[in-house]
Amino acid sequence: MIKTTVIRHPKERLSKCSLTPLHERPEIDFYRAKQGFIFNATGYTLLAVDAPPLSLADSGRPLLLLDATWRLLPRVAAAVEGVPVPRSIPAGVITAYPRVGTHFPDPQGGLASVEALYVARALLGDNDVSLLAGYYWKEQFLENLPKWDAFREL
Hints:
By secondary structure, the protein is an alpha/beta fold. The protein is 14% helix and 16% strand. The strands form two sheets. Strands 2-1-5-4-7 form a five-stranded parallel β-sheet. A two-stranded parallel ribbon has the order 3-6.
């Protein structure tokens, strides 16, 4: 298990959040980026779209996942201080989450939060499909994963 911290925008609707089924997992801590909240991310791997790709060389650090709509993500990122190591999900992973945003385009390679968490942990040697147990689009997402060694057991 890889220790994971999730920081959410305060307006993120838990009823629509792909991570809500993971609230009881002992290795995952959830925080809301309310006014005045600051998180020191030094020593964490921060999942980010525009960063170098994640690899096994990044093992050993806890993960930090920022959970918000793409439009509100900069506000959550403002709550992060310190020196995290930014990493992205390597190209080739396609979201199964149906995108509906019309006013703010999703970045190329953007994933649902639970998709990003699952892929990141698998790439770091922790291929735990139970992370996707409550994800409505689980089967479609798994079917479309690249044929990487990290997903060999699927």
